[in-house]
Design brief:
Strand 8 and strand 9 form a beta hairpin. The protein has 244 residues and is mainly β. The strands form 6 sheets. Strands 14, 16, 17, 19, 20 and 21 form a 6-stranded mixed beta sheet that branches. A 5-stranded mixed beta sheet has the order 6-12-11-8-9, with no helix packed on it. It has 2 domains: 96 residues, Immunoglobulin-like (Sandwich); 96 residues, Immunoglobulins (Immunoglobulin-like, Sandwich), CATH 2.60.40. The chain has no helices and 21 strands.
Length: 244
């Protein structure tokens, strides 16, 4: 028969229960030592490349070296170079996972180590898995407080920048009026950049654009191709009194 013994020392005996003609007996003790099984681990990911700000699931899979067998428990710890990303509990399928959105754009050297348990030896560090992370994309929209203003009347314009990964935005939004820069504003935590009190100095149509210049983690983007058009008209004048 095959016995699945846990790691450690075992004192094995065999007992014959006897029958109508023979008395029972017990064998001498046989000392049986069971060594822990050796393991290795490999890393994979749910998306490669992934996008900045969007969580990616890293999976560590344990392989048990022959002649070992069974189901390991414990945890697998994941690292990006020397930085620990987290640890996941080993499941009955011999896998452990973590989800992280902490990876910046670029190539990351991901490794994993299984910590072992009472029956399995801790694994050596896994082979390096290269996780590539792309910059997050952005969309910039523009709005204005009105589309028609009187000459020298102030106009409020506002841009909103949205990141595909929801990551924090740095950098600036540049506003232009018919191609001329009229303001540069850093977006706030909600991705909003406002340019209040803009005065369009000439009569006629003015096409206003907002351009987010991007940052190390996010690509730049511009408001839609048509921009926002504001028409500047002459200011109304009070009627001139009739002369006698």
């Amino acid at each position: 028969m095959i016995c699945n013994l846990i790691a450690g020392g075992h004192n094995i005996t065999v007992v014959y229960s006897g029958d109508g003609n023979f008395t029972g007996s017990t064998s001498p003790i046989v000392a049986q030592t069971v060594n822990k099984a050796s393991t290795t681990v490999a890393v994979s990911s749910s998306a490669n490349p992934s996008t900045f700000g969007v969580g990616v699931t890293l999976t560590g899979t344990i392989s048990i070296s022959a002649p070992g067998g069974g189901t390991p428990t414990g945890t697998i710890t994941f690292k990006d170079g020397a930085t620990t990303l987290g640890a996941g509990a080993v499941q009955p399928n011999k896998k452990a996972t973590i989800n992280t959105s902490a990876l910046l754009p670029g190539a990351h050297s991901i490794t994993a180590v299984y910590g072992g348990d009472s029956n399995f030896i801790a694994s050596p560090t896994s082979p390096v898995f290269t996780q590539n992370v792309n910059q997050g994309s952005t969309v910039t929209t523009l709005s204005a407080s009105r589309t028609t203003v009187n000459f020298r009347q102030k106009l409020n314009v506002s841009a909103n920048v949205v990141s595909s990964g929801g990551g924090p935005l740095t950098g600036t939004v540049t506003f232009t009026d018919n191609g001329k820069v009229v303001g540069t504003i850093a977006p706030n935590g909600a991705g909003n950049a406002s340019l209040p009190g803009l005065i369009l100095g000439t009569l006629g149509n003015h096409t206003i654009f907002a351009v987010y210049g991007g940052d190390p983690n996010q690509t730049g983007s511009s408001s839609d191709d048509s921009g926002t058009t504001a028409n500047v008209q002459q200011s109304p004048h009070p009627a001139t009194p009739n002369q006698p």
